[in-house]
Write a structure and sequence with these properties.
single chain; alpha/beta; Rossmann fold; 5-stranded parallel β-sheet; 4-stranded parallel β-sheet; 9 strands; 38% helix; globular
Length: 309
């Protein structure tokens, strides 16, 4: 029976290459289900209750998880910290244990602090899926990004992917690097010196500060949002200067030596890291990423619940 090597999905660090391939193969099957006009729902998790606990604002990730859960016929409980007893001082463990007392089997959690999902997994009985913890990891985003590259090119191994932007504060960047390297891709990071962490070279990635050079090197450019909400100091003079040096527009895209694929984990700040004519161009697979997110999250939840395809 095909199974993941882990009981929780806390980060890409906890997955093997075989785990990732199993998730992809399972997502392939679920994507076939999602593309059927009449039957878009399967009874795989009919007796499973999943709680979505979000301590940070989210639109795409929360809706993607909720849709994936409902497509699997799970019972879904949605929890927003802003309208809960957390605002009165209740601890994370007490909050989750109270939810689990209502016979919840699995928790999907987003939290502003790195390591929150790992901490929770050691103190509660339910299975934990990390939907993003601070600037640490966002494993399902990395999985859907790699899945989208695999869908576009047939394989991730050997492909050259550049991640552009706020690498320092991005959980998407770290999870993508770990996932892509695990699958045999070459990875480069590109951005201002102040937004490239000092440790990044130890992860086996190339570093480039010139956007044009990075784009001419790559097959795929993953453009990240500047995370102003995580920045406690100014890391560059202005957004206008950042856009001039690291923003991707159609003129730059058309001037490259080859045609590349453009990705973005969202939400897009149009006119900052990417212009509308690039985001909506035929070289963009941004909407494919959104679609693939549901299939990947269905696969993760299904496999963690101990089912087989």
């Amino acid at each position: 029976m095909a199974e993941l090597s882990t009981r929780h999905l806390l980060g890409i660090k906890g997955l093997t290459a075989q785990d990732i391939e199993l998730i992809f193969e399972t997502a392939d099957r679920f994507k076939d289900v999602l593309n059927q006009p009449q039957i878009r729902k399967v009874p795989s998790l009919r007796d499973v209750t999943i709680a979505n606990i979000f301590f940070e604002n989210s639109t795409r990730t929360r809706l993607s998880f909720e849709l994936a859960e409902k497509r699997l016929s799970a019972d879904v409980v949605n929890f927003a910290a802003s309208s809960s007893s957390v605002s009165k001082g209740e601890t994370l463990i007490d909050t989750v244990n109270n939810i689990l007392a209502m016979k919840v089997d699995m928790v999907v959690m987003r939290h502003p602090y790195a390591g929150a999902a790992t901490f929770l997994s050691k103190h509660v009985k339910a299975q934990i899926v990390n939907a993003g913890d601070g600037a640490h990891e966002h494993p399902t985003q990395a999985l859907l990004d790699a899945f989208s590259i695999r869908e576009k090119y047939g394989d991730v191994a050997g492909k050259k992917i550049v991640i552009v932007g706020d690498i320092l504060h991005s959980r998407v960047a770290l999870s993508n690097i770990l996932c892509l390297k695990q699958l045999g891709a070459e990875v480069m990071v590109c951005g201002p010196t102040t937004l490239i962490p000092k440790y990044i070279g130890a992860l086996g990635v190339k570093i480039e500060h010139n956007l044009i050079k990075a784009l001419n090197w790559c097959d795929v450019a993953n453009m990240l949002r500047i995370q102003l909400e995580r920045q406690d100091i100014k890391y560059f003079p202005s957004l206008r200067e950042y856009t001039m040096l690291y923003g991707l527009n159609k003129e730059i895209l058309d001037s490259l030596d080859k045609e590349i694929t453009v990705m973005h984990p969202g939400p897009i700040n149009r006119g900052v890291e990417i212009t509308s004519d690039v985001a909506d161009s035929k070289q963009s697979i941004i909407l494919d990423q959104v679609e693939n997110g549901v299939a990947i999250r269905m696969a993760v939840l299904y496999l963690l619940a101990g089912q087989t395809p």
